[in-house]
Please model this.
Amino acid sequence: MSGLTAEIAGFIANASLQAMPEAVLGKAKKCVADTFGVMLAGAHSEVAPPILRYLDQGGARGDAAVLGTGLSTSPEMAAFANATFGHALDFDDVLSMMVAHPSSVIVGALLGAAAGKKISGRQFLEAYIVGVEVGAKIGLGITVGHFGRGFHSQGTLCTFSALAGIAKLRSLDTATTQLAFGIASSLASGVRRNVGTMTKPLHAGWAARNAMAAADLASFGLTAAPDALEAKTGFFGAFGVDASDAAVTSKGLGKPWTVADPGLAIKRFPCCHASHRAMDGLLTLRRKMNFTVDTVKQVDCRYPPGGTTPVASYPEPKTGLQGKFSLQYSLAAGVLDGEYTLRSFKDEAVLRPEIKPVLQKIHVTEEVHCGNNDPHLESRSFGSRGFVEVEVTMTDGRNEMIRVDHAPGHPRRELEWSEIQAKFMDCASTAHIDPNGAESVFKRLANLEACNDVNEIAALLLTK
Model:
């Protein structure tokens, strides 16, 4: 019987867009279009200057576009930069079964792999869907315990997502793909301690770059263990927990296709997804109660056990990046501003003096009852387990509470194309892309299966 590494290689080779359910294509297009947008904005984030200096120092040259900039570079370095920028603002989509944001890594890697070749929209989408599927099912098999150990799945599991997409796009044979997964098993890396710093989005870029390197090295004849995923001393053994089971991954490939079921969550807010249900609940209560910062006495936010893990490290953040992983700040900003934009998580917004007294009004707890009805509590990601309660008490004694089960953009609260377009246009304006040009590009992304060459779209998103 073949092992998991070989089975994944065979699965990638045999996967076909034509054989996938119709719903898969539409949902994939939404995620890809959204990812192009967040890459544009990320190219003008605080993460961009050191990344661009790194590219310049390396001196790599090539035809691969770095979206939102005027630069073209080598395929590997473009994959690195685009994926980093895609995750820079924490505005990219999220897949709970991986506890990761796979699209930024996959799309970044595929843009690099497509450079200099004529790659149709259908080929690009097929490779993207396969990339999501492989990483997702590895995540399902290794379990959320991988994330719990301190590994950041963006840098670990998404390496395999990107590699699967590249292997499909390049039509690598199964033997070469199997070797590439062996190489990637030794390259995958990333620790959660760097959440809230610039190194968190670096994990995405490094994963895309590692995937490109693994595919190239395998193609050039570098050898690796044929069972590097499932062997006792392989990836599952080293990075997993007692509950990890490679057989779960093997049995789940394409059954169903993850892009359609359970689907990815496309973010409405540019911060950690674990905060989104609470933020949505606060805005709903603000509209209903018509409160202001002066009329709010206290905000109580209740999460299921373990639910605040990704957003509890920075109760009083000192930077915009820390603010993205601070539930207290996210709620305080909602009280003060009544909305969330890209500007909400800039350094100047987090450090404004008027936010400090509002932070003292925010009380966050984890409550058993918020997870009692979730039979999969321990296996779900922190942002999707159980439900969240937000309760606002006003100075005049009025009190309202709301329960939120799913954040906006969750597959059960899917964003419409018009909402994704509005987000794309906002991101494009941050990158100083002409509005008419941005609208034209978005239309092409929304109809990506009809595109003859994805590189033509990428070229339109280079700035002068």
